[in-house]
């Protein structure tokens, strides 16, 4: 049974910027560039009928495209860090999309997620990290920022059991509505064409 989650794929240029953060942490298992994503909602292992209902419910989301930039780095696990990640610039549009995704999940009978939504892109998983090395890594990359990019879709993805995540498979792609006439998602936001799945 596949493990499902709903996510934003990271465009090539932003992923390339993220890949420059690789290295400098002994024992880190760095995520492959093609597996970078921003999870909107982890679903988990679900039966086929629920997965089909969820795929249909997500088509009902009608939000407009928006601009997003990745910014800053952090770690999960204060005393024993287990992962390092890149953060996201403040984005009410991202939080609104995540809220709609969460409501769609609840409508098909999935339980609510008790964890607070912390938008991030996982860069590496850590094995037996030294807190001082992680602190030094974070301090050295604290000013990280990508150019803003246009978020014009989100995806339902699946993963199979593996070490470190991936490979991820796009099960369904959901386009966002274009910006209103005369509006752009953000000044200078990059719009990249993604390959068809």
From TrEMBL:
Motif range (HXTX 2): 120-123
Alphabetically ordered keywords of this record: Hydrolase
Pfam families found in the cross-reference section: 2_5_RNA_ligase2 (PF13563)
UniProt short sequence motif HXTX 1, positions renumbered to this chain: 37-40
SUPFAM superfamilies to which the protein is assigned, alphabetical: LigT-like
Record flagged with keyword Cytoplasm: no
Active site: 37 (proton donor), 120 (proton acceptor)
InterPro entries: Cyclic_Pdiesterase (IPR009097), RNA_CPDase (IPR004175)
Entry keyword Kinase: no
Class of the enzyme per the UniProt entry, highest EC level: hydrolase
E.C. number: 3.1.4.58
Gene3D superfamilies linked to this entry: Cyclic phosphodiesterase
GO MF term list: 2',3'-cyclic-nucleotide 3'-phosphodiesterase activity; RNA 2',3'-cyclic 3'-phosphodiesterase activity
Catalytic reactions on record: a 3'-end 2',3'-cyclophospho-ribonucleotide-RNA + H2O = a 3'-end 2'-phospho-ribonucleotide-RNA + H(+)
Classification via PANTHER family: RNA 2',3'-CYCLIC PHOSPHODIESTERASE
Family: Belongs to the 2H phosphoesterase superfamily. ThpR family.
Summary of the function given for this chain in its UniProt record: Hydrolyzes RNA 2',3'-cyclic phosphodiester to an RNA 2'-phosphomonoester.
NCBIfam families documented for this protein: 2_5_ligase
Protein name listed in UniProt: RNA 2',3'-cyclic phosphodiesterase
Organism of derivation: Pararhizobium mangrovi
């Amino acid at each position: 049974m596949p493990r499902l989650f709903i996510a934003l794929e990271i465009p090539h240029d932003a992923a390339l910027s993220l890949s420059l953060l690789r290295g400098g942490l002994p024992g880190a298992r760095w995520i492959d560039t093609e597996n970078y994503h921003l999870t909107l909602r982890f679903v988990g292992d679900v039966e086929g009928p629920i997965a089909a209902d969820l795929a249909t419910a997500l088509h009902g989301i009608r939000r407009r495209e928006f601009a997003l930039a990745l910014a800053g780095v952090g770690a999960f696990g204060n005393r024993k860090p287990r992962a390092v990640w890149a953060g996201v610039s403040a984005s009410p549009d991202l939080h609104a999309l995540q809220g709609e995704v969460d409501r769609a999940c609840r409508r098909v009978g999935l339980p609510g997620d008790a964890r607070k939504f912390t938008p991030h892109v996982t860069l590496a998983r850590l094995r037996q990290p030294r807190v001082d090395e992680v602190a030094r890594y974070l301090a050295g990359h604290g000013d990280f920022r990508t150019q803003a990019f246009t978020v014009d879709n989100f995806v339902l993805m699946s993963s199979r059991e593996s070490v470190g995540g991936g490979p991820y498979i796009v099960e369904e792609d959901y386009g966002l509505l274009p910006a209103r006439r005369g509006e752009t998602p953000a000044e200078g936001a990059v719009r990249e064409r993604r390959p068809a799945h």
